[in-house]
Amino acid sequence: MSIALWCVLGAAFLPYPFTLAAKWSRRFDNHRPRDYLETTQGWQKRAHWAQLNSFEAFPAFAAAVIVNHIVLGPNATADCIALGFIACRIAYGLFYVADSALPRSIAWFAASLCSVALFLLAA
């Protein structure tokens, strides 16, 4: 299996560290997790938002990798772009939790470009 396809698996699990961070509290109620997450503040609220955005970014990336793989087969360029996506999404989440708006937006944009690049590479 190619590195790019492994990155799809990695991207599928990227939201979960932020989910755990958002729920890291003695007040967390597993019977009503969504209610709890709506009451969080500060870095925990931002961790929650980072996990939501990570779930939102996943489908386009997964589709881009799969389309690229179907059209071109395994290739080093796609592997590098997919690794770039993972790196940008990790940076995005960390910048989000740290409340660094401009670097977060740059990381988001760079990760989005990675998904677009995978499609364009296959065109």
Topology:
Layout: H1 3-13, H2 15-22, H3 33-39, H4 42-72, H5 76-97, H6 101-122
Provide tags for this entry.
single chain, 123 residues, mainly alpha, Four Helix Bundle (Hemerythrin (Met), subunit A), elongated
How is this structure best described in words?
The chain is mostly helical and 123 residues long. The protein has one domain: Membrane associated eicosanoid/glutathione metabolism-like domain (Four Helix Bundle (Hemerythrin (Met), subunit A), Up-down Bundle). The protein has helices at 3-13, 15-22, 33-39, 42-72, 76-97, 101-122. Helix 4 runs antiparallel to helix 5 and helix 5 packs antiparallel against helix 6. It is elongated, with a radius of gyration of 16 Å. The mean pLDDT is 96.
Outline, from the CA principal axes? elongated
The chain-level mean pLDDT equals 96
Percent of residues in helical segments? over 70%
Through-space gap between termini:
22 Å
Residue windows where pLDDT falls under 50 for at least 5 positions = none
Structural class given helices, strands, pairing? mainly alpha
Strand content: under 5%
Which CATH class applies here? Mainly Alpha
CATH superfamily: Membrane associated eicosanoid/glutathione metabolism-like domain
Rg, please? 16 Å
What's the number of domains? 1
- Would you tell me which CATH topology applies? Four Helix Bundle (Hemerythrin (Met), subunit A)
Q: What is the ordering of alpha helices and beta strands?
A: HHHHHH
Number of H- or I-type helical stretches: 6
Count of beta strands: 0
Largest sheet report: none
Q: Do you know the CATH architecture?
A: Up-down Bundle
